[in-house]
Specification:
Helix content is about 30%, strand content about 30%. A 5-stranded mixed beta barrel has the order 1-3-5-6-7. It is of the alpha+beta class. The longest helix has 13 residues. It has 5 helices and 7 strands, in the order ββαβββββαααα. It has 2 domains: about 110 residues, Archaeosine Trna-guanine Transglycosylase, Chain: A, domain 4 (Roll); about 70 residues, Methane Monooxygenase Hydroxylase, Chain G, domain 1, CATH 1.20.58. A hairpin with an 8-residue loop joins strand 3 and strand 4.
Amino acid sequence: MQNIPLFPLHTVLYPQGRLPLRIFEPRYMDMVSECMKTNSGFGVCLIKAGTETGPSPTCFNIGTYADIIDFSQEADGLLLITIQGKRRFQILRTSVRSNNLLEGDVDWMTEDEALECPEKYWPLRDIYLHIVKNYETFYLNESHDSISAKILSYRLAEFLPFDQELKQEILETGATTRRLELIESNLAGAEIEFE
């Protein structure tokens, strides 16, 4: 068990996924400062009820620990950071610091090994390759042809226009093949058009 600061958002972050954030609330500016000083990260969790600003919201209890991989500050003091997801955690209990920052005692969740994508899911891999080769993403400079089944499942969940509750269900699913099954079954009902 470990205690970490939490950043509730209306989006899901996956392991190895990247996300740009604009930081302006004092509690999150304090959190970023603390993370930079201690070379540590924080947890991102999807909001179940409430908002990103104001009182601490209620969150889903599975989230992703993230490191800050890029940082800049605008003239008005606004912080711009990019974070990268590392590993999933389960929140056991939460508390609120005096500065209104949510923190949680978490347990780390296990991950499947990074195995090659099974042939059955090559059509999903083809969709992924189409996206990264034709649309601007954070992953332009990576090699994509040998993507593991695990990263494929997380990246597709990130890219595809699923609702946040389905994205959260995919995050909470431990088995890579089950995540790919969820994506495949939900693609049938999604209206996706590629240019």
